[in-house]
Write a structure and sequence with these properties.
Blueprint lengths: L5 H10 L4 E4 L6 H11 L5 E5 L10 E5 L7 H12 L6 H9 L6 E9 L5 E2 L2 E7 L1 H4 L7 H8 L8 E4 L3 H11 L6 E5 L12 E4 L10 H9 L3 E6 L3 E11 L2 E4 L3 E8 L4 E9 L7 H20 L3 E10 L4 E7 L4 H5 L8 H9 L8 H21 L9
Parallel strand pairs: 1-2, 1-4, 2-3, 4-6
Antiparallel strand pairs: 5-6, 7-10, 8-9, 8-10, 11-12, 11-13, 11-15, 13-14, 15-16
Helix pairs in contact: 1-11, 6-9
Length: 390
């Protein structure tokens, strides 16, 4: 893949020799993303705005975090978004004004954040972000319809209920309880329950939360939210990542998720992601095929473009059951660690700004696969540090 691709040429004309205010969402390593602008797009400096405090050894990257909120990951991200778009009252506005006194910078938003209308923020033009209808793709109540349109095996048996309908909620939990493992309840993403496993709970068959579950009970009794109830499947949590492009859907190799269960809160906690080392077997190719069909539906029905991912369970009995669609650049793209030669975050930004890459979908897949394969092999061949003998 050549970085002389016309997508980069056009994107470069929008940001070259201009300072960039880079507003990151809950990204794995926002400093890496900032470095891509310096390396690939001829940007002289970056003001990096992040959820959590970060630092950079590069003097061209200045970091500021808009945080301070206590609580869960979701609560901190909600507070971040409120402060970010509350321009007049937040010191971030004055910080940007001081950093960019000539008002020549462009604001680049993470694909996690909603694109403002008109496309200006802090009195500066905005690139990136995502449309409201694209955010709504993440609503867990709407996703089964997308799976049906794509003809893929989503949660085959499920129920959507309002949480204030307590009798029906418990009835559906009992009906859907899988053997003795209970059910998984996913709260609707319309209230923001789509970050770091927030809003996803493992319940017993009668609707009781494992491990006490005070957090789940609070939500059940205080918020009239919708929820999707599905059987709990034993298996390997996994995901697959792709890019909806003008000339097709590029689907990368599947990855395995590391997820823990918190007995105290009764919910799952996302701990990271890594390339599939053979755990998925033939289920990996099944998942790739599902992602291709879902990407085609997102393009056709939602006019979606850019990065997306699917979460799934590769069950112990050989099924692949989809659980979630993420309409953004998610963690797995960064786990590939190929941004020095194939900056997928910038490809996502180029696509979302209408700068379509010339590279074909299959060519992009092959290129990323070759990069990641070469790097795994080089790491395996690297000499290890001799162990001291005693």
């Amino acid at each position: 893949m050549s970085l002389n691709d016309t997508a980069f040429a056009r994107l470069t004309t929008q940001v070259a020799q201009r300072s960039v205010v880079l507003v990151a969402g809950p990204t794995r390593d926002p400093v890496r993303w900032a470095s891509q602008f310096l390396r690939h797009l001829d940007v002289p400096r970056v003001l990096l705005v992040s959820v959590d405090p970060v630092t950079s050894s590069d003097s061209r990257i200045e970091c500021i975090h808009v945080g301070g909120a206590e609580g869960s990951d979701l609560e901190r991200i909600r507070a971040y978004c409120r402060l970010l778009f509350d321009e007049p009252s937040h010191p971030l506005a004055s910080k940007i004004k001081h950093w960019d006194q000539a008002t020549e910078a462009v604001v680049v938003l993470s694909s996690y954040l909603q694109r403002p209308r008109p496309q200006r923020l802090f009195n500066r033009p905005v690139l990136g972000g995502r449309l409201k209808r694209w955010i709504e793709i993440e609503d867990k109540m709407a996703q089964p319809a997308i799976w049906r349109s794509a003809g893929v095996n989503g949660t085959a048996d499920y129920a959507s209920v309002r949480l204030h309908q307590r009798a029906r909620f418990h009835q559906e939990c009992r009906r859907l309880s899988h053997r003795t493992s209970g059910v998984v309840v996913a709260l609707s993403s319309t209230n923001g329950n789509n970050a770091a496993g927030e809003g996803t709970y493992w319940l017993t068959g009668d609707g009781g939360c494992r491990g006490g579950g005070g957090e789940m009970r609070t939500k059940l009794h205080s918020e009239a939210l919708s929820a999707r109830i599905m059987p709990y499947y034993e298996g390997t949590p996994c995901s697959v990542h792709g890019l909806v492009m003008a000339n097709g859907v590029a689907v990368l190799d599947p990855m395995v998720q590391m997820i823990d269960f918190d007995e105290g809160s009764g919910r799952f906690r996302y701990r990271g992601i890594e390339p599939d080392g053979g755990q998925l077997g033939g289920s990996g190719q099944v998942l790739r095929g599902m992602a291709l069909r879902v990407g085609e539906v997102l393009s056709r029905d939602f006019r979606y473009c850019g990065a997306f991912s699917l979460d799934a369970i590769a069950t112990d009995d050989g099924q692949v059951v989809l659980t979630e669609i993420n309409s953004r650049l998610s963690d797995g793209f960064w786990a590939l660690e190929c941004d020095d030669v194939a900056p997928l975050a910038l490809y996502d930004l180029a696509i979302r700004t209408g700068n379509w890459p010339e590279i074909g979908a299959v060519e992009l897949e092959d290129h990323i696969r070759q990069i990641t394969t070469d790097r795994r092999q080089s790491r395996s061949l690297a000499p290890s540090t001799p162990r001291a003998s005693h």
